[in-house]
Write a structure and sequence with these properties.
binds flavin mononucleotide; single chain; two-stranded antiparallel sheet; 6 helices
């Protein structure tokens, strides 16, 4: 599959078939995550693969009832929990080197973007899920305090084709030479 086909075709999937992706398919997407760039190659990400139904149910309750991905966390055959070691990405000798502080969110997003595109290539769907109580999720999964739970990523085979979501036009978010300057 061409890269642009995967970029265009990937959509958030919130309803899954019951069949479990093979170990090979899961290894493939994790390999794609592994190859992502990161701050000074720190690779601060760690993933917990949750297949256990009772743990997925507990995790789903960390999402507000209004979150449309709540059912996906409960129902998908696997939830990949994206975690990151705090205080490494964007740090030198224990101190943040930019005013932005910890770059872990950026790095894990790159890894998870690779992962979701590779999943799409293999016929799988997923949905990034950020609106949940990450401290509660950390307790459920025994995550140590120096590691942040960043997102829940249900993954599996889509039950049906996804809704296409709108995007801004490129000219609406690109400026030239200075902020706010549009192409003349
Ligand atoms: C960082 C991040 C957090 C997200 N959190 C949620 C979430 O909590 N619940 C949900 O249903 N979708 C969540 N999404 C999915 C977005 O709603 C979705 O990507 C967006 O509407 C565009 O749709 P598409 O992924 O189908 O292209 C999240 C996406 C990102 C990138």
């Amino acid at each position: 599959m061409e890269l642009m086909e995967a970029i265009r075709g990937r959509r958030s999937i919130r309803k899954y078939r019951k069949d479990m992706p093979s170990d090979e398919a899961i290894s493939y997407v994790l390999e794609a995550a592994k190859l992502a760039p990161s701050w000074a190659n720190t690779q601060c990400w760690e993933f917990i693969l949750v297949k256990d139904e009772s743990i997925r149910l507990k995790l789903s309750k960390t999402l507000p009832e209004t979150n449309p991905a709540r059912g996906a966390v409960e129902q998908a055959p696997i939830v990949i929990v994206g975690c990151a070691k705090k205080g490494t990405s964007g740090f030198f000798k224990g101190k943040p080197v930019t005013e932005k502080g910890d770059w872990m969110l950026f790095d894990i997003a790159l890894a998870l973007q690779n992962l979701t595109l590779a999943a799409y290539e293999k016929g799988m769907g997923s949905v990034h899920t950020g609106f949940f109580d990450s401290l509660k999720a950390g307790e459920i999964l025994n995550v140590p305090s120096d590691v942040a739970v960043i997102e829940l990523l249900p993954i599996g085979y889509p039950e049906k084709e996804a809704r296409v979501t709108p995007r801004k036009k490129v000219e609406d978010f690109v400026f030239y030479d200075s902020y706010g300057i549009k192409k003349g």
